[in-house]
Design goal:
Length: about 325
């Protein structure tokens, strides 16, 4: 059997490492890594228990009633053709569901306010500000106060709130880190917010849950929760090994390319195999992306990321 060329071997190793990281990453709120996901898990378990109070009797009694009152000779079941009302039965049939719905409504109201994505209830420590841009088919994380940006890797410090402002430079997308926080939509020309915090150092998976074309399955990223000193070292590593996020680089980044394709186009040997590192140029990139759609006129297709005419595909 022929040996693999070094370039092919490197590609195989990259795929294996990336797949292993994704497999090990926590990707469910049933394995919560922060207080928001923990509240979501508690709410689900509580709701399940309350609903089972109504569901289990039905699942048990329906087969028993069907068996006991089936048509057969010598049946011991009592036959009462003139029976048409039972106060106790009516109370149980209607009273129990009413109580369950009332309790569910109370807990849902409480959890909804507790989990408000715009709320910032996690202490007085200043939050890490992150601007998130959805592209085809990757997420761009901009740290405006730190002068860096990343794709494919989202670094955060533990025990410190992260305040995220989200938009997209293409179609509507749905941002989610299941082990940390719930899903929230992002749309072009608009912003939404999400606050989260991680309890312990952990690797978690994030993704887009809104189907948006061929690269949808690869629009995932690793969320790295780190101790503050490790986070500071990670920031310095991004600064050292990142490339300037110029207008031309952003244009390449915003093309309709999936994670592997953009990695091949912009990655360097100093970057991880599954992430891109950038340093920010002067100016407010997030604001310029957002206001691209506020001119009062439709954007030409060759200026709209997400179209075939934009960038590389439009030149073919």
């Amino acid at each position: 059997m022929a040996l693999l060329k070094p370039s092919a071997m490197a590609l195989v190793i990259a795929v294996v490492v990336t797949s292993a990281q994704m497999a090990w990453a926590s990707n469910s709120f049933m394995d919560p890594q922060g207080p928001i996901a923990a509240v979501q898990k508690t709410h689900l378990l509580r709701a399940t228990v309350l609903i089972m109070i109504a569901v289990l009797p039905v699942l048990v009694l329906v087969p028993l009633i069907a068996l006991r009152y089936r048509r057969r000779k010598g049946s011991a079941a009592e036959y009462r053709p003139k029976w048409d009302f039972s106060a106790k039965l009516e109370f149980a049939m209607w009273g129990v569901p009413v109580v369950i719905v009332a309790l569910l409504s109370f807990y849902l109201w409480k959890a909804t306010h507790r989990l408000d994505p715009y709320a910032a209830p996690f202490g007085e420590t200043p939050a890490v500000n992150v601007q998130v841009v959805g592209l085809d088919w990757k997420w761009l994380f901009i740290y405006p106060d730190l002068g860096i940006a990343t794709v494919g890797e989202f670094g955060i410090p533990v025990k410190q709130q992260v305040a995220m402002t989200l938009t997209t430079d293409t179609v509507m997308q749905s941002f989610m880190i299941p082990a940390l926080a719930g899903q929230i939509y992002a749309m072009p020309g608009m912003t939404t917010q999400l606050h989260l915090v991680a309890d312990t150092p952990e690797t978690m998976q994030g993704e887009n849950t809104q189907y948006n074309g061929r690269g949808f399955t690869k629009q995932k990223f690793l969320t790295q929760a780190m101790q503050p000193e490790d986070f500071n070292a990670w920031v310095e590593s991004v600064r050292t090994h990142g490339i300037p996020l110029t207008e031309d680089i952003y244009r390449t980044l915003a093309m309709r390319t999936d994670r592997d394709e953009v990695q091949a186009a912009l990655g360097t040997p100093l970057m991880p195999l599954n992430a891109l590192y950038f340093t920010l140029e002067d100016g407010d990139l997030f604001r310029s992306i957002l206001h691209r759609y506020h001119g009062g006129q439709p954007l030409p297709r060759d200026q709209q990321p997400g179209t075939a005419e934009y960038g590389q595909e439009g030149a073919q």
